[in-house]
Amino acid sequence: MPVRARRVAVALAATASIALLTSACTGSADDAASDDPKAETTITFWHGWSAPSEVKAIKDNVARFEKAHPNIKVKVVGNINDDKLSQALRAGGSNGPDVAASFTTSNVGKFCHTGALADLGPFLEKDKVDLDKTFSKVLQDYTRFEGRRCALPLLSDAYGLYYNKDAFEAAGIPAPPKTWSEFTRVAKKLTKEKGDSYEQLGFMPNYLGYETVPSHYMSQWKHTYFDANGKSNLAKDPGFAKMLTYQKSLVDGLGGFEKLDRYRTTFGDEWGAKHPFHTGQVAMQLDGEWRLNFIKDAKVPFEVGVAPLPVADDEVAEYGKGYLSGTIIGLAPQSKKQNAAWELIKYMTMDTEAVVQFANDIGNVPSTLEALKSPNLKVDARFKVFLDIARHPASSTSDGAVNGSTYQDTFQDFAQKYEKGEVKDLKKGLEETAAQIDRDIAQAK
Fold first, then answer.
1. What is the rounded CA–CA span in Å between residue 43 and residue 236?
2. Residue 371 and residue 30: Cα distance in Å, rounded?
3. What is the pTM of this model?
């Protein structure tokens, strides 16, 4: 499935295993890429998709590649998370992948810093690829670290706001909110309490409410995770305190953490038909473009609207932006078939029709600038909202770090304590959290 929230879970598992990667994984692309890409060969491709429709989309994409490159056969292995991937890369040998895809963009810093994935620079230079004409700046940024490009984008994701149009109409709400203050009023108006629970909740703000994690909220406030010296900016950049303060006010305004969390435990699986937005338990949901396919499959009985997430009240000029992420793909440094493997990566990431067809099949946002403009891209009014978010100049993603998503995990742990009311001094808490992030990064270097 296009389990983007799954990144949060696999990143936690990956933190330990990627840390085990050593200089044994830092071979360069130059000395490994000695194979003849025109020779008969078989390469192995590992990816994380597991839903039947998505596995089929991968197989179809690979079949098109094999037709265009009849000398290269691809052995496909699915349902591989970053934990399994990292262990294989560390072990090396012939049992691992030649090409690997990951959902966890926040681990690119680790992949590049440790050499877990090979430097793609020589291949891009050899084929004279103009990255600025191929990918947007955000996608270029989250596939490189410390000047090393160890991955390329393989489809992308944009996050926005889903809303129940029937519920909006019943509550007399004419349009989705554009600022967070408007959002609070709308969420309260849509909320129908039922004893110590809810008949309908306007929005589940808790950080465990599926996609409502701190990094996704933060995209709607101007912020910088690290300063020019690479130190954590949590306590210095006012955007973090503003986001945390707003989110807690929303939690308190909708019934308080404990009441909301009890209601959250009644929700169905995020990737099943009983998702709380599907069932009408919540009237608004922060989610990615892939939710459109899940809504269709679940035969949701109400009309669904899509809009960008609100922005800070003093940033209304940037309405339309959002959080961006995506799948990344790279080369195993120990592979002895890197030229053949590069042909697969190049095809899957930069062949316009391949990217468009895969995006159509998987329900994700295309990753190349040309694919975004393709007349063959299946676009309706709702999917176009996500394309616009992906193209918005103020849309952002999480910064890379040598220890991958560890700093995000630390920030999220603190944010969860703050929303529960366990932290009374926000300024002091942010300072302590920033200091912990700095210690973790120093240790990882």
1. 48
2. 30
3. 0.86
